[in-house]
Amino acid sequence: MAYGVALAVCAIVLASALYYILPADPNCYKPIGCLKEGVRVTYVKPVFTISPYFRSYVNGTNLLFVNGSGSFYSFYEYASRVFNSQSESQVSSSNGMPPPRFITTNLEMLSSKVVLDKWTEVGDNFTESPILLETLTSIVPSVKTITDIDVNEGALFSNGIRTTDVLVLGHEEYVTDFEYSQFAEFVATGGKIVAVDGNTFYAKVNYSAQTNMETFVAGHGLEFNGTAAWQSASSPFDNMSTNWFGSIFLPEPSLGEEIYVDFAVVNHSGPIPGSRIFYGYNFRHWDVNFVTNFTGTDVLATFYDLARYYGVAAYYAPTSVPIDVYCHHYRQGVSCSFGIFGEYLLLKGDRDAKNALAAMVIRDV
After folding, report:
1. Which of 2, 55, 187, 249 has its CA 20 to 30 A from that of 49?
2. SS3 for 159?
3. Whole-angstrom distance, CA of residue 237 vs CA of residue 45
């Protein structure tokens, strides 16, 4: 018996030694597991979202009306002032047509040159370092990078066949009609989307490859038809996103002042390891998505906050608006989302956020 025990101990020691001595499988991320052989992972750089933010803020300076900055956000501020000076009856939309009073000035702000050399937009900071891509390649080294422009030109399919298996999205706020339809078709045909940030698929733009310009169409309480802009409650993608993506952007007025994230309690039947994740970061979240379709949806974790309880750790409650990490099954594929702005956590070096990303990319959900 002692001999057998000794052999077992030797086997364990040998296995442990080999684990550290032999070359690691590049498709394996130790805390989570290994990506299945042949699974292709692609990161989509959200240039249609980075660009209007970048045109609005540089080094923390608001460029409102500076040299015709070409910023959607400059126009949003301008439009707000105009509409606040008008009565509600004067600015309401009717059957999608401009109302009697609408904006026809400063419309050049609704077209923006697409920026290709910037990466992460977090709190109006633009980095040369693609934090989401860097984190992703530390999990799965072989990651292809494409941009919104590529998706808009049909890069997700070749002769009707998907060109990749897992799409990782960052701050994918602005998309074209065709790009959006490609994301939906990608999931419908068996692909997996992992959206690391909230504020996903909120606004519509058009893109011209000839001029490398994107032009605002709808969202943010406005619509634009090329000659005039007017107030509108239009959320161009919400109904479709509820169907296939499972969540929509939560408008800021609904958030009040109480959305803080301290940690998320994990559903143990899901792919994310641990019992709590993202612990120890008390910060306000504005750009969040909330689940609007629980049919075929697996909630992987639910966010909680302590701030509303004045820091008394003995008590905790869900965030004032329910925000979940989830995966929503649609036809042959699945859409997963952090719900919150996960890149913020990755930028802070949060290991739990990295493990959650790895689990959603690598594991079956």
Report:
1. 187
2. coil
3. 20
Please write the tens of the pLDDT for every residue from 118-176: 765 554 454 555 889 999 999 998 999 999 999 999 999 999 999 999 999 999 999 99
d(CA 9, CA 3): 10
Q: In the predicted model, is pLDDT for residue 184 greater than 50?
A: yes
What six digits make up the tokens of 45? Answer: 């750089």
- Tokens for 268? 């143990």
CA 140 to CA 32: how far, in whole Å? 11
Contact partners, residue 184, CB within 8 Å, separation at least 6 = 240, 244, 245
Half-sphere exposure of 121 (CA within 13 A, CB side): 28
Three-state secondary-structure class, residue 15: helix
Q: Looking at domain 2-362, which CATH architecture does it have?
A: 3-Layer(aba) Sandwich (3.40)
Q: Which two structure tokens, joined as six digits, stand for 262?
A: 């301290």
> What pTM value is reported for the model?
0.85
Domain definitions of the chain by residue range: 2-362
Give the pair of three-digit tokens for residue 20: 């550290």
Which residue has tokens 């509409």? Answer: 83
User: In sequence order, what are the residues at sequence separation of 6 or more whose Cβ sits closer than 8 angstroms to the Cβ of residue 210?
Assistant: none
Polymer length of the chain? 365
